Amino acid sequence: MAAWSAETPRAPAVVPHRTGQGIGYADEGLYDRDADGVLWIRQAIAPGSGRPLFPTIHPLRQRRAINRMLCQVCGADTLEQDPERQLFVLKDVGRPVEEGELTTAAPVCPPCALLAVEHCPHLRKNVAAWVERPLVWGVAGIPYNRRTLLPVPSDELATVAYGDPAIRWIVATRQVLSLNGCTAVFENTGFLLPSGGVFGPRRPLPREAVAT
Predict the structure, then answer these.
(1) Rounded to whole angstroms, how far apart are CA atoms 149 and 82?
(2) Cβ within 8 Å of residue 113, ≥6 positions away
(3) Global pTM?
């Protein structure tokens, strides 16, 4: 899901929406909004061009991974590996993954989970859970001032649920999931490995590796 240096964001002019409720682009096209009518940021699509920007997420690939339950590392279909539950590895915020947790992270397949916690700096300290019902909840993005039509200054993206009228004034950059049916994985990520072995391709975690 990482962006590449050649995939530069584009900044079209933001104008009032024709309905008078919310914002749009002056040259808005069919692909600027998702199925729920939310306006999305434009960014070039050129994977493999330039150098990878690992801290930066490409919005279209993130949304595709979220909606199709693709592994955020290798792009494999996690539903094929286990249609009943998906593994999510999140940055540690001092507590386990909670029921209804909101996240912009896509699932990860077990072999890639081990790679992610080893090589991704913000996942060195992590929490993980098997999730039975990851549901699309809303978006995270840049809110715009209703009077000036300028971005509202903030160090954080605004998180807004589908159905909230405030979403009309957002330029979305991330899809947000609600994690439901969560079973926490042991805090020590070493328990992701079966005793005396390693994972082969597409092999799921043993049930014994999760907390009860």
Answers:
(1) 45
(2) 87, 89, 128, 189, 192
(3) 0.81
